[in-house]
């Protein structure tokens, strides 16, 4: 089995566990803490995600440089030297961010977050604890990026799975055994994050190859990588601003309770990233290594296969979650009231996220070639459009209005991003991407899920509904897989091997 296949399987198992755990924990948090306190958990997710704006492109750069080294060890410095050079910069930025959050915690608690039942001091203390968690989680990103560049996805996912269990399950135990208060949960997150940071540091130092010529901090590396790091940083800043602007605008406009409903819908939509993330995590270092070798034939093959696989994963699940959002939310949260408030928002956010997932492969292709200008131009344009549109629509229509902007931007990105990408890299591949890799699985999934929506039996609930939805996803996935040549050929090969094994005489 090839390294890429092993990495994809490891990513599916690891990220699947992490996302499944998160989905299981949400209704428990709501039951133990209440919907308003869950809004603070949603705010923490937004805050920690937004802090990646200040990453300076160093995590992506570490991944790329280590991947380039794995393809040609003479082309760049060793992974240990790369890490020693970027580590102090990353650490300084993380500490600075955490200190800034602590200083702003009274303003955030009193001016930004609109809590009705929670006292302002409780909110402020929670924000200060969030700052500590952000600082402790910050360095983990850099360490795991170095391992990703080496395509060590098995180790990464073992770490992430253990950390998610420690943080999530331990948090539930803390709420049950200590006190069902939001501050208790965030205090546990601080302790778990400290353990996670120690574990990540030990893991990366045990796996990175030894380098007898390691010279520690190397300013020459900064001089060589600064253009890519700066471009990647600007793209990340604008992309994160685009993905998080609606949430920051909403938290400043609506009550914490309404924001909680939006956070629940966002969590459901983010499940799609858990499905496509394993493919992307294995694909990027492989593409980067092929670009370093200049093997365009292999690049086209990996790019097309990854696009087909992402499409066959994202579209069936995305359309099922979107068209059955009410039913899924009732099953998930165990609350008709929560589902009623969140279902429309979830439908819109899931459709936008589904298209966003499809665009990850062309975006990673750009980064593999070290081309950051296009991604930056598109995201800046979207940001300029999104902020005023989100303010206007969120003010007029609340969470539904903010979600609509996310969908509209991703429809536009889906239409223009790929043609612009292939004007420079893999020229002429845009038509094949649409007509061969993406639209067939999309149309196949639309047909299956649409018919299932019409055929949904009245009054179905509980295990019967779960079985129905699983059948819909699997049926749509099967139709999507059979609609594209790479996956159809892969299935045919597997079936041929099975038939051949059946025909072998007993040993």
Please summarize what this structure is.
This protein is an all-alpha fold and 507 residues long. It contains 18 helices and no strands. It has one domain (3-486).
Written description of the protein model:
The protein has 18 helices and no strands. The protein is mainly α and 507 residues long. It has one domain. Helix 3 packs parallel to helix 9 and helix 8 packs parallel to helix 14. It is globular, with a radius of gyration of 23 Å. The two termini are 25 Å apart.
Regions with pLDDT < 50 over 5+ consecutive residues?
Answer: none
Provide the residue-averaged pLDDT. 85
Element-by-element helix/strand order: HHHHHHHHHHHHHHHHHH
Structural class: mainly alpha
The strand count comes to 0
| Quaternary class | single chain
Percent strand:
under 5%
Tally of distinct domains:
1
Number of helices: 18
Gyration radius, in Å: 23 Å
What is the helix content? over 70%
Apparent shape:
globular
Compute the separation of the termini in Å.
Answer: 25 Å
Largest sheet at a glance?
A: none
């Amino acid at each position: 089995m090839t390294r890429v296949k092993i990495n994809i399987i490891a990513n599916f198992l690891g990220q699947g566990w992490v996302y499944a755990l998160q989905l299981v924990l949400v209704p428990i948090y709501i039951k133990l803490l209440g919907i308003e306190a869950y809004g603070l958990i949603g705010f923490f997710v937004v805050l920690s995600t937004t802090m990646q704006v200040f990453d300076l492109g160093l995590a992506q750069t570490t991944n790329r440089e280590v991947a380039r080294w794995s393809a040609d060890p003479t082309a760049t410095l060793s992974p240990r030297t790369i890490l020693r050079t970027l580590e102090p910069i990353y650490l300084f930025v993380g500490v600075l961010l955490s200190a800034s959050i602590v200083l702003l915690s009274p303003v955030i608690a009193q001016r930004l977050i609109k809590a009705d039942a929670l006292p302002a001091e409780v909110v402020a203390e929670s924000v200060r604890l969030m700052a500590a968690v952000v600082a402790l989680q910050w360095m983990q990103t850099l360490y795991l990026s170095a391992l990703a560049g080496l395509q060590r996805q098995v180790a990464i996912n073992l770490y992430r799975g253990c950390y998610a269990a420690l943080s999530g399950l331990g948090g539930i135990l803390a709420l049950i055994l200590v006190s069902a208060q939001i501050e208790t949960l965030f205090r546990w997150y601080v302790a778990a994050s400290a353990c996670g940071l120690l574990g990540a540091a030990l893991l990366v130092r045990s796996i990175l190859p030894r380098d007898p010529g390691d010279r520690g901090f190397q300013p020459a590396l900064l001089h060589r990588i600064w253009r890519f790091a700066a471009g990647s940083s600007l793209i990340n800043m604008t992309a994160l601003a685009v993905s998080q602007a609606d949430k920051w605008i909403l938290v400043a406009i609506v009550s914490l309770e309404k924001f909680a409903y939006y956070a629940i819908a966002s969590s459901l939509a983010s499940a799609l990233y858990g499905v496509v993330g394993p493919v992307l995590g294995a694909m990027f270092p492989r593409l980067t290594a092929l670009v370093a070798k200049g093997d365009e034939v292999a690049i086209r093959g990996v790019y097309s296969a990854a696009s087909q696989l992402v499409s066959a994963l994202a579209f069936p699940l995305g359309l099922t979650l979107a068209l059955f959002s009410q039913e899924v939310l009732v099953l998930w949260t165990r609350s008709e009231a929560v589902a009623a408030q969140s279902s429309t928002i979830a439908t819109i956010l899931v459709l936008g996220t589904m298209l966003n997932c499809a665009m990850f492969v062309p975006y990673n292709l750009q980064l593999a070639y070290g081309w950051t200008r296009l991604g930056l131009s598109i995201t800046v344009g979207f940001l300029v459009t999104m902020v005023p549109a989100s303010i206007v629509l969120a003010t007029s229509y609340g969470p539904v209005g903010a979600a609509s902007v996310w969908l509209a931007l991703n429809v536009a990105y889906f239409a223009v991003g790929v043609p612009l990408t292939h004007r420079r890299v893999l020229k002429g591949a845009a038509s094949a991407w649409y007509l061969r890799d993406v639209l067939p699985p999309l149309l196949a999934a639309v047909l299956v899920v649409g018919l299932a929506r019409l055929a949904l039996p009245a009054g179905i609930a509980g295990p019967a509904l779960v079985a129905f939805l699983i059948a819909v996803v699997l049926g749509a996935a099967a139709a999507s897989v059979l609609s594209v040549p790479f996956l159809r050929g892969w299935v045919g090969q597997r079936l041929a091997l099975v038939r051949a094994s059946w025909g072998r005489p007993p040993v």
